[in-house]
Design brief:
With 272 residues, the chain is of the alpha+beta class. Strands 6-11-7-8-9-10 form a six-stranded antiparallel sheet, with no helix packed on it. It is elongated and about 90 Å long. About 14% of the residues have low confidence.
Length: 272
């Protein structure tokens, strides 16, 4: 039984104990039997409601203090938004460890007050995302890799003197094929719905203060009825608008664009 299950069970037993106490009081109270029956049904029904509500609380981030020692499994930074009255927050998914750095509990989610320096540290310390589906799959276990030598043991010959047969080609000295140019992804209105969920799903790497290695050379080209600009970062996002960080001259500026005005977004690589 996990720690969360123990907490929910303790809350359920506590509520059940209160129900038992109420039932004992009703047995000796001089109330009408119909009133007693109604109270018993209500207490029994709220026991089920309390148990389900306690289970629902397990998915929310805890405002408690972080463990003394922990391993950071992930981080989510919500930057403050003055217009919407959102003070921002830092969500950390951590796993508590003991003095020998071995896990000593289940992973938990914590919510901290937003702080710019803490947000930068959390972004830098967060583990890098795993390789995407575009990454070539590793060869099956036991199968020789491409262009790797196939080894054959010759009877009566020491293993150090085994014969190696390597895949060759008749085109000796042929130059390697040039690398393919980076692909540009295009998102047009009508094919995609531009909203907060779209940006947080498609361009999650653009929200961080510190860009990850896989996204640091990518930019967003945004087209609206009034302008066409290139954004290097999404500084914040609200229910109906998104704020881009653009480079104009030697300074960086924040540009607010309503979702309704976005006509097209291109995810492309920076020009060398």
């Amino acid at each position: 039984m996990t720690g969360q299950d123990q907490t929910v069970l303790a809350m359920g037993l506590g509520y059940a104990l209160l129900g038992v106490v109420l039932l004992v009081i009703l047995l000796f109270a001089r109330f009408d039997w119909r009133l007693k029956a109604v109270l018993i049904v209500l207490v029994s029904g709220f026991y089920v409601v309390d148990f389900r509500a306690a289970r629902a609380l397990l998915g929310w981030a805890s405002p408690e203090a972080l463990p003394p020692k922990f391993k950071l499994l992930g981080a989510r930074i919500v930057e403050p938004h003055s217009l919407a009255g959102d003070a921002g927050a830092i969500f950390l998914w951590v796993e508590e460890v003991d003095n020998d750095n071995f896990p000593s509990g289940d992973p938990r989610l914590f919510r901290l007050r937003y702080d710019a320096k803490l947000a930068e540290r959390a972004e830098a310390a967060a583990p890098v995302e795993e390789a995407s589906a575009e990454t070539p799959a590793a060869p099956a276990e036991g199968a020789p890799a491409v262009n790797e030598p196939h080894r054959f043991l010759v009877p009566g010959v020491k293993q150090e003197e085994e014969i190696h047969i390597v895949t060759g080609s008749w085109e000796a000295g042929a130059p390697p094929a040039p690398p393919e140019p980076p692909q540009t992804e295009i998102f047009q209105r009508g094919q995609f719905m531009f909203n907060r969920r779209f940006f947080e799903t498609k361009f999650s790497g653009f929200f961080g203060i510190v860009r990850r290695e896989a996204d640091k050379d990518k930019v967003l080209q945004v087209k609206t009825p009034h302008a066409l600009f290139v954004a290097e970062r999404i500084s914040r996002i609200a229910a109906n608008e998104v704020h881009f960080e653009v480079l104009r001259g030697d300074s960086r500026q924040e540009l607010m664009v309503p979702f309704a005005e976005i006509q097209e977004i291109q995810l492309k690589h920076k020009k060398p």
